[in-house]
Amino acid sequence: MLFAGPLKKMKVFFQSPVKYTLEIGDDLLLVNDLIGKHWNFQYQHKTQCFCGYKVDKIFRQNFCYDCFYSKPEAGDFILRPELSKAHLGIEDRDLEWEKAYQLKPHIVYLADSGGLKVGVTRKEQMPTRWIDQGASSAIILAEVPNRYLAGELEVALKQHISDKTVVKKMLGNSLFPIDLIEEKQKVLSLVPEHLQVFLSGNSEIPLKIEYPRPTAFEHQKSISLEKEAQFSSTLVGIRGQYLLFEQGKVLNVRSHEGKIIHLDIR
Ligand SMILES: [Zn+2]
Q: Tens digits of per-residue pLDDT, 100-149?
């Protein structure tokens, strides 16, 4: 089967295991059903920005240069919630868009993604965000009414807990799952006083997430289509936004967003 089009992040559905779909051109692939098949990627250095324009180069994330510096979707508050200003009525790039995005319930969470991490997500993005990161479990620490407050809390915790996922560890088989209830208890004292009112109660239990992946997988090599232009192997599983191939090879779908590929699966 031949498919062609720009790569987009996989859509995820919280089931056990997680169900994945991948839209490519006019086709929608049920990725779980394609485990065990041989995938052949071809990339001819053509890209398409999220704005829909074909561009010579994706500049950062899935944005062309112009979009990265002008669209609210690429604003600094996306990756650094503490820079949010819509709650003050201050515009970064497009106040109406920023209000709609930032002035919504946000969750600050703890996750086990091969190591303990703290993160922020819009409430409506849960558990999608946790799945995208490949977390094996996650627990709500606090629910706040806007993005700025979530960022403020995350910054306070970041001094003690990582806010990054170590891919190699996340993709490996963690022999020692983290007790998130215990970790949550430990961080409560780190929460600034004015944010304590937003803490979730003790009845919160961690959400466990199962992925369609092999029981034994060791990350050996991250594939970059930018460097290789062609890659083929047998898909053995999926975790987070990562396609897992034989011999520990891994393709991060997210970091390839916007690349127009030809994909042959048989
Ligand atoms: Zn663009």
A: 999 999 999 999 999 999 999 999 999 999 999 999 999 999 999 999 99
Distance from residue 257's CA to the centre of ligand 1 (Å): 12
The pocket of ion ligand 1, defined by CB under 5 A, consists of 49, 51, 64, 67
CA 243 to centroid of chain Cα atoms: 13
pLDDT in tens, 12-60: 999 999 999 999 999 999 999 999 999 999 999 999 999 999 988 889 8
Q: From the CA of 160, how far away is ligand 1's center (Å)?
A: 37
Q: How far is the CA of 60 from the centre of ligand 1 (A)?
A: 10
Ligand 1 centroid distance, CA of 238 (Å): 29
d(CA 142, CA 144): 6
Contact 248, 240 (CB under 8 A): no
How far does CA 134 lie from the centroid of its chain?
8
> Is the separation of the CB atoms in 66 and 93 below 8 Å?
no
